[in-house]
Amino acid sequence: VTGFRLPRLNRRHIPLLAVGAVVVFAFAYVLFIAQKPPEAGGGSWRTTTFGSAVDDPASFMRIFLDSITFAGALFIVASGFALIFGLMRVVNMAHGAFYLLGGYIAYEIQQAMAGQGFAIPTSSVNTWEWVAPLLVAAPCIAVVGLVTQQGFLRWNQGQELRQALITIAISVIIADQIIAHFPRATSTVAQKFGGSAVSLTWPGWTDRFVNLHIVGVQYSLARFVMLGLGIAVGLALWLWLYRTKMGMVIRAGVDDQKMTSALGINIQRTFAIAFAVGSALAAFGAVVWASQANIASGQDGQWLLNSLVVVIVGGMGSIFGAAAGAILYAFVLNFSATYLPTTGPDCCTQYSIVFTFALIALVLAFRPQGLFGRPA
Amino acid sequence: MRWNLLRSSPKTTIERAIGATALVLAAIAPLVFNGYWAHEILVETFLFGIAAASLIFLSAYGGMVSLAQTALFGIAGVILGNLVTRGGPGGTSKGLHLGWDPTLALVIAIVLTTAIGLIFGAIAARSVGIYFLMITLTYSVITTYFLGQVTVVSGFSGIGGINQYTPGWIGDVIGHPNRLYYASLVAAVFTYVVIRYVIRTPFGIALQGVRDEPVRMSSLGYNVPLHRTLAFGFAAFLASLGGILYVWWSGQIAPGNVDLPETINLLVMAVIGGLARIEGAWLGAFAFIIIQNYVRDFNFPLIGFGGTLFGGSFNTVIGVIFLLIVLVSPGGLMGIWDRAFAARLRVGRRGPRAEAPASTSG
What we know:
The complex is a heterodimer. Chain A is mainly alpha-helical.
């Protein structure tokens, strides 16, 4: 009886080992190697903003929570993109524009309800005044998505590239019209129109810090709500896709469109619903993230990138992939922005975007179909 | 080539005549047209046409629609800007200010951009179709953010004043713009010729095989990802030519030159011209730049033009034209030309044995 034997290492394992070493080094750097900047200024390759996780567990914890809560918002937006892509093989390049439009619509509704001009204090927003904008914006974008799908994409089914080009054209038009018409409800003339930056406001009860009793970290309740909403969307999608008849049809459609419709199922209706839901999720994510940060013209590109990275990393068109991709991307984004060496004003946290590229390159090099994707 | 080279068809003859006329017109343009037309619109057409041609080359012969060409175009410009500029007393312009010899810098910018293109290509080479589009789009957006964040090489405001550091054979581009005009024209013609040459080499033929039948080519022993990577590197080389001419022409390069709207603009040029034929690059660039220059001033009631901030944006018009082209004629203007000619032949001649359109689907 031979026991478990390690596979003999050969030349083909070198890249894998190299990548493994780099990843281990990155973990070790964050956990042990990093140091706080010295009082006198300057520093070495070990100098980071906060120091290592062992030295400064509170900062580490806070960045950990930043990442995981950002992943919540990221997942909401990207899951819509993944849903549409998974079912219809449509790369909805207008997803970022939908996101932006949804955010601005919600902003207008909240301004109309709470009506304070540019920035509403959190205390004057109640839960309903946050939920109502969401309940208006999401269906609005669902309709926009439905019109896009029925009017332009449906009769080009199977022509993936052409569909991508069509959605690019639509995103150009929407992004330009946003500049022309939003935001309307700002108080000063300078901020009116032009797609200037605005933000929604979380309801008043979220505006406090929760004591976690872990290394004394106090953390914003609003960001936990964001994470909760992300998990809720994930659960709802899972229930819908894996526990209902409609979800079964959708999954069947992902696997084999022709066979599904041959069984007498109206796959076109399913497509329409999935596209509407996917678009509405863009608006949902916009409401959530615009409450935490802001929205402004030009962010459509950023959120299209976010959705693309999540879907490329996680695996094309899988909900679990979107969750995994969102978490991985959020962690890489936040940790690289904090734990890169900061020896001087010009070094080196600004290089954090390189890590997004490295993440994509690594995943594609070893798994071209993404972490949870199936080979096409 | 697909056509019979000995007995060229009437269509080919007409196309050659049009091409020759356009070339002659382009050669005498600085003498005939006013400065704005020759030195702004036509130069812009040539250099964006080069970038669009690199996109069309990948699409038509490699089956890869790349959105990274604008990024590579910008990378070449940024590298050149870093290498040639010197920190002035004003110190307004960012960059490394290496102050190298412009001709040497030109060569290094081209080589480095091609190398970056090879890396980009190697990562994306195992993906096709829509996945390739998505991956190259992330390249483009990441390049924008990289340039915006990394203040050492560019920063948000980018590098300016590069047009003061042109090589001697270009000279002062403001005072004597004709040299830059002819350099752009020569580069555009070179791009066209070299693409036409490459697609006839064994590599080009194999690339077209990879486009049509990757599995079969793979089992015939061709290294499919390598062919895609090399094609991407070649396209990066072409895009770098456009980028270098661009920074000589405009004098500056910034993240705003490679951002998502600019990436889409280049795609719009290529699609308007036609993703299946190289000639479409300059046709599309010309049409786009004309629209950009002359549609700005229109104002339609009801629909906005994003005009409140920027004095009239033409993006809605561009978006609508782009949408119409994609919906009506996926082959762009060249596709319309091909189809019009095919239809004419069918009417005019004996039956359906008319020539098959030379275009291939992208």
